[in-house]
Amino acid sequence: MQHKRQLGKQGPQVSALGLGCMGLSDFYSSSGSSEAQSIALIHRALDLGVTFLDTADVYGPHTNEQTVGKALKGRRDQVVLATKFGIVRQPGSSYRGVSGSPEYVRAACEASLQRLGVGHIDLYYQHRVDPSVPIEDTVGAMAELVKQGKVRYLGLSEAAPSTIRRAHKVHPITALQTEYSLWSRDPEDEILPTLRELGIGFVPYSPLGRGFLAGRFKKLEDLAADDWRRESPRFQGENFAKNLELVEQIKLAAKEKGCTPSQLALAWLLTQGTDIVPIPGTTSLARLEENLAAPGIVLTPAELEHIEAVAPQGAASGHRYHEAMAHLLNG
Predict the structure, then answer these.
(1) I need a labelling partner for 209 at 20 to 30 A (CA). Which of 11, 231, 242, 311 fits?
(2) CB–CB of 172/154 below 8 Å?
(3) Is residue 29 scored above 60 in pLDDT?
């Protein structure tokens, strides 16, 4: 995959698609990939030209960073490595709180460096904004990590425009990570204009609508019993049925284009701006290769118009997260 993009005005150059590593070890099913399978998948992604990997300390918790670290042994210089701090979750517990205190920032970074087995983190995100700590204090501590050489670039995740502006005044923010896809288009209202004004790159997570846009789900029972998505409002009841109708339209458009629904959804995202670098995740080598063909798909103005007609902003039914996590969005 030769397609490259720059993350923000002052950030690094990365592959047009990164690899989101969360699903290799958490949230979608406890019976997911073995560590060996996960490492093989990351290696295949690197072989195919992916140079941007995304993980977080909360995934596992902790085991995802360890797996990514093992996969990068001998290949560290091939990737821009992103990880996150800020969602607090103890091993064996599903409880997730948040912390943005300077002390926590420093301790979390040290722990991530150890687990990843690296000397520095390329892009360090605050995973969720802590409403009890001024963003200036959190980003101030993150900026210290840059001075110390432990971190190269700073990012935020699910932050509100006003928070992004305040953070950017303390230290340049290189990238914002927020959910964005054909069924989550809210960033188009205020987030994207703010980022473009400030020269900040945009990293959409769940660019395939947590797998829904790939067209693989027909009913809730298609998800594993311990799959986090069973709790998601968009996967329940009438919402599920309405969202299936949306996916059927996307499948038809993909068939006309001669590509898969996943490829169409990713190609659409990439046309929304050269400052956008989606990070689809998968546990399947075949789907990895399928996704990585998306940057080569060129959508015509007529095709984009058709996609807009079948999947306009607000087309998805249901909230992105259940209430326990929704209050941490747009912080």
Answers:
(1) 11
(2) yes
(3) no
